[in-house]
Fold this sequence. Notes:
Layout: E1 2-10, E2 16-24, E3 33-39, H1 48-63, E4 67-72, H2 80-91, E5 95-109, E6 118-132, E7 137-149, H3 156-172
Parallel strand pairs: 3-4, 3-5
Antiparallel strand pairs: 1-2, 2-7, 5-6, 6-7
Helix pairs in contact: 1-3
Amino acid sequence: xxxxxxxxxxxxxSHSKTTVESTRADGATPVETVMVFTNISDPPFAGLMNMGFxxxxxxxxxxxxxxxEFRQVVxxxxxxxxxxxxxxxxxxxxxxxxxxxxxxxxxxYTDAHGENVRSRGFDVWVELELLDRRVNKVTxxxxxxxxxxxxxxxxxxxxEAFADAVVSRLRSDGMMLGCAGK
Length: 182
């Protein structure tokens, strides 16, 4: 696998920055259908950010002619590959994209009464692995760091920006070929 690095600075009121490091297996082929398994539930991804991420990732994949289905993984019991294979067969997808938390922190504050907990900043790491069922191996991996500093909770726009960085990297790594005008 060859390592690649892409840094995308997103100018917004949240002052966020996304860094993506990825590797692509030699001989990896682009995907046409993918089942996305997300296992991200901690702040800042809980709520609106997660919704924005999933919606924008779905739209980004569709814009590149990749049909997708999404599944939430509540807990990883060690049988992720078996569950993925069964779901992929049922939905006739040729790949699974596993999206899971890989660490990070959220800085919060409360008001003078100890109420209204708000996120002041976050530095979150997410790991992605693309399993290609046609060759039964992981053909693409990425480690994504998303940093944001703001007063308030992470928003849908934060999730959308995160998803845009993932789609951009999948596209630049040649894992999606049907991206018109990109």
